[in-house]
């Protein structure tokens, strides 16, 4: 007897497991059992597993019987005429959905020519073994798996046109590429997913070449003239949101220009751009610290007396300002109500982003890199025909990563650009790269994609032939303008007295144990001392008891927690975090005794 499990739970036994599995599949193909339920007979364990749980990934495959696919030419003709749709094929049992479990019992062929009597299924399309983003990578089957994965992930971070109505939307962090293009080298997925409606990259001329060492370690070089012509320009949008909240006792926030008697009133200069309603005007140029929405709130803590006399308690300032490091132009203002019916104000700020050193770019093959230098056009290398590349890519990024498709795309892009056509780079079914080489040769170029290049500074010819072509490049959302951060003195945390954390809060850059070791190994003692006194504090310590005492201001003397006034006390410099640790230990009933020695 074989055990039967439904979604991992035992539901009974059956005498003939093979018969149950076969009849289950038959009924499912007839449409009597829902297409999303999968079954697997595991011979080694002698058990039948049936899965119908939610969240499983299932994928369609063509059913194969006796070495022949169930999908015939007649089906395809009917689909082309519009007589059949995909769901009809599923109902007829021509196509069925398999999950990872049932796929264990299937033998799937890529192409019809590979079918044998042992095969149970065939791929609708070889490209279907990868996901949507991965299928957008041209010549993906020539790539190393890790890089194909990276190329798929990178496309999700590229700037483009994410929605056509972005001008009337209030989304959090939004980047729009100004002149996105459709790639010259594309796959059938670009057509199926209507990629031309939301493109996210640009076709550039790319040369593979080392240049002054500025493109070491995956960095890329950009041609200054290309940037001036609008290469990879984008706009960054970010909203500032404020609402009038209601508090107990009938109190409410008020969006307006704060009066001078308000607690925490900033300088008059900060409110200069607000209009009469307390909201900034469109097209105002703003920088960090500028007030965008003026707002006052009732006092935080009302004493019992104040509750009866609200006129005495002054309101506090709670305006919305631009955070540390932000700047831009006020683009759009939306006045509306929140769910509770209170006034809600949203101000969208835009900022034009021109590529700069530190911005991140990538091809579709996981070859990501940051801009290492923007080269003046006269210094850029140029080809014998006078072509100046937009991007210079380092040759050392190719051998160890084995991204062949990166090189094939360069070749294909060049052939496509010269002959004015799109190149099909669909994985497993792409155009033959040998044909592309022949096409390039027929257009009067070297068939291997290389060209003679000249040094822009000296005019000398390079000794080596340089590999150059057209490629689809993506600008990623990781821009240095959103990440650049430095601080000297600034805000500190209340508890530890150490600098706050993070760029938005104007935080410090933490030095850990390993960073400390670098100073120690360099013998940079004073740097080490300076770096580690962000929370330096001098505390009075009782020499006899070794406990931290305190200073009595009224009597102007130091007091020991055990021996009281007049005890021998000394000030000791320590980190406030360490003083905090001593307090924590005392709360646990541990006696942290400090044994003091003279400082020689």
Describe the structure.
- The chain is α+β, with helices and mostly antiparallel strands and 600 residues long.
- It folds into 5 domains: 123 residues, Hypothetical Protein Ta0175, Chain: A, domain 2, CATH 3.90.1070; 213 residues, Dna-directed Rna Polymerase Ii 140kd Polypeptide, Chain: B, Domain 6; 119 residues, RNA polymerase II, Rpb2 subunit, wall domain (OB fold (Dihydrolipoamide Acetyltransferase, E2P), Beta Barrel), CATH 2.40.50; 47 residues, RNA polymerase alpha subunit dimerisation domain (DCoH-like), CATH 3.90.1800; 52 residues, DCoH-like, CATH 3.90.1800.
- It has 12 helices and 35 strands.
- Strands 12-26-13-24-23-30 form a 6-stranded mixed β-barrel. Strands 5, 6, 7, 8 and 9 form a 5-stranded mixed beta sheet that branches.
- Helix 7 packs parallel to helix 8.
- The radius of gyration is 34 Å and the shape is extended.
């Amino acid at each position: 007897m074989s055990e039967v499990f439904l979604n991992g739970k035992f539901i009974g036994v059956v005498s003939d497991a093979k018969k149950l599995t076969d009849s289950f599949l038959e009924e499912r193909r007839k449409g009597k059992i829902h297409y999303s339920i999968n079954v697997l007979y595991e011979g080694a364990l002698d058990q039948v597993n049936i899965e119908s749980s939610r969240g499983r990934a299932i994928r369609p495959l063509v059913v194969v019987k006796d070495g022949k696919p169930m999908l015939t030419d007649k089906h395809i003709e009917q689909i082309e005429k519009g007589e059949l749709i995909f769901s009809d094929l599923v109902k007829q049992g021509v196509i069925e959905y398999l999950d990872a479990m049932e796929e264990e019992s299937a033998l799937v062929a890529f192409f019809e020519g590979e079918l044998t009597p042992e095969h149970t299924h065939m791929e609708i399309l070889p490209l279907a073994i990868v996901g949507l983003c991965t299928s957008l990578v041209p010549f993906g089957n020539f790539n190393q798996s890790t890089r194909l994965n990276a190329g798929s992930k990178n496309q999700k971070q590229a700037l483009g046109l994410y929605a056509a109505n972005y001008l009337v939307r209030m989304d959090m962090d939004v980047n729009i590429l100004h002149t996105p293009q459709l790639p010259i080298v594309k796959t059938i997925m670009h057509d199926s997913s209507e990629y031309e409606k939301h493109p996210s990259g640009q076709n550039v001329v790319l040369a593979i070449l080392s240049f002054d060492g500025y493109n070491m370690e995956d960095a890329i070089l950009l041609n200054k003239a290309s940037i001036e012509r609008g290469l990879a320009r984008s706009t960054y949008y970010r909203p500032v949101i404020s609402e009038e909240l209601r508090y107990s006792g009938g109190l409410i926030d008020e969006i307006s220009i704060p009066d001078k008697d308000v607690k925490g009133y900033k300088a008059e200069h900060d409110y200069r751009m607000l209009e009469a309603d307390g909201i900034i005007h469109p097209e105002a140029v703003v920088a960090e610290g500028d007030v965008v929405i003026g707002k006052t709130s009732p006092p935080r803590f009302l004493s019992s007396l104040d509750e009866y006399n609200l006129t005495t308690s002054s309101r506090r300032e709670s305006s919305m300002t631009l955070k540390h490091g932000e700047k831009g132009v006020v683009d759009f203002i939306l006045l509306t109500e929140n769910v509770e019916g209170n006034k809600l104000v949203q101000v969208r700020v835009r900022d034009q982003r021109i590529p700069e050193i530190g911005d991140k770019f990538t091809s579709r093959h996981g070859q990501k890199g940051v801009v290492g230098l923007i080269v003046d056009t006269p210094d850029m290398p140029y080809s014998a025909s006078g072509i100046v590349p937009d991007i210079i890519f380092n040759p050392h990024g190719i051998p160890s990563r084995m991204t062949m498709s990166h090189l094939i795309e360069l070749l294909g892009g060049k052939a496509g650009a010269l002959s004015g056509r799109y190149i099909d780079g669909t994985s497993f079914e792409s155009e033959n790269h040998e044909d592309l080489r022949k096409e390039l040769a027929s257009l009067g170029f070297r068939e291997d994609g290389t060209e003679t290049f000249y040094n822009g500074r000296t005019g000398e010819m390079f000794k080596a032939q340089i590999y150059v072509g057209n490629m689809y490049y993506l600008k990623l959302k990781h821009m240095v303008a959103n990440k650049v951060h430095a601080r000297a003195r600034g805000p500190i945390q209340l508890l530890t007295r150490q600098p706050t954390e993070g760029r938005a809060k104007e935080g410090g850059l933490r030095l850990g144990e390993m960073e400390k070791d670098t100073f120690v190994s360099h013998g940079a003692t004073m740097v080490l001392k300076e770096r580690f006194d962000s929370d330096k504090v001098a505390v009075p310590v009782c020499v006899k008891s070794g406990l931290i005492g305190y200073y009595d201001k009224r009597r102007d003397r130091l007091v020991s927690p055990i021996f009281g006034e007049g005890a021998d006390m000394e000030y000791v410099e320590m980190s406030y975090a360490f003083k905090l640790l001593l307090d924590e230990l005392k709360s646990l009933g541990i006696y942290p005794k400090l044994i003091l020695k003279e400082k020689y």
